[in-house]
Amino acid sequence: MATSSAPAPPPTPARDGPRRRQPLRNLFHRLDLRAAPYTFIAPFFIIFGAFSLYPLIYTSWISLHRVELSAMDMMEWQGFENYVNLWQDDRFWNALTNTFTIGVISTVPQLLMALGLAHLLNYRLRGSAFFRVAALAPYATSVGAAALVFTMLFERDFGMINWALGLVGIENVDWENEKWPAQLAISTIVIWRWTGYNALLYLAAMQAIPRDRYEAAAIDGASRWQQFTRVTVPGIRATIVFTIVLSTIGATQIFGEPLIFGQGPNGVTGGADNQYQTLGLLLYEEGWRNGQMGRAATVAWAMFLILILVFVLQRVLAGARSRREPGRRRAAAGAASAGRQSR
């Protein structure tokens, strides 16, 4: 009997291709998930390495050599001799003192005025947007234009400041050639330029404070001043610390204001007697007037180390304050509970 064979099943498509592509897709997916974040932040690190980290390392290397501006490719190894000479240089200590005094005279009034201005702008005022823009206008002004205008205002014979002082019987002040008047005039330029900027930082921090805190303080009978000292200032403490650090960095690097205030050769030396020469001016004098790039690099690294020291000191003080804060809170809570029990 003849038997009929069953038809052969149709050939199944080969699945080797998709099976081989699947691990490759998984690999690309894992690379995308893990490498994409590093790809996005890579431009920052490239720019930081090229324009910040490399100059910092190269400057430290130059500071260990004797290098002249006219022959940068010729370096003579000196080790730490430049640092020893800088430590023994009276000009460095004079510039450091002037930088400190100008920084204090400009920073303290600047931040206090910024805090008061931000407190006023925090209230609902007509034209508040205009006042905020006006407060930021000095910051947008170039340092050259601001310093030039204030230099004319503080001019000895025909300046408006001496004219106003003459109306109350004060003789003309030689703002440029006397130490403290010169530093006060330079500090005035810094205060005018940076007060509005810090005020807007404080204002942004104040507006982030919940209104419930002010309502609770008002219910407890706190005055406007008590609300400011007990609610506003503690609420923006982190911003205040930030502005102090930022102003300290700016005071250490102050350069344009005293340079233009000197109106000529005396601007580089900080006056005829170096009465307002800062560390930035000393760096410029050593590098571009005297042509000693090794000494200039040493001054730059001294400024960098000073900033690190200030930052470490600030962190130590902040840590000490944070350790004392729980004890103060417990003491205040205990005093409050004792008062309630006595009533």
From TrEMBL:
Its main location: membrane. Residues 1-21 are annotated as: Disordered. SUPFAM superfamilies: MetI-like. CDD domains: TM_PBP2. Keywords: Cell membrane, Membrane, Transmembrane, Transmembrane helix, Transport. The keyword Transcription regulation does not apply. The chain crosses the membrane at residues 35-57, 100-121, 133-154, 184-205, 234-255, 299-320. InterPro entries: ABC_transporter_permease, MetI-like, MetI-like_sf. Residues 96-314 form the ABC transmembrane type-1 domain. The keyword Transport applies. It is found in: Cell membrane. Gene3D superfamilies: MetI-like (1.10.3720.10). It is a multi-pass membrane protein. Belongs to the binding-protein-dependent transport system permease family. This is Sugar ABC transporter permease. It comes from Streptomyces johnsoniae.
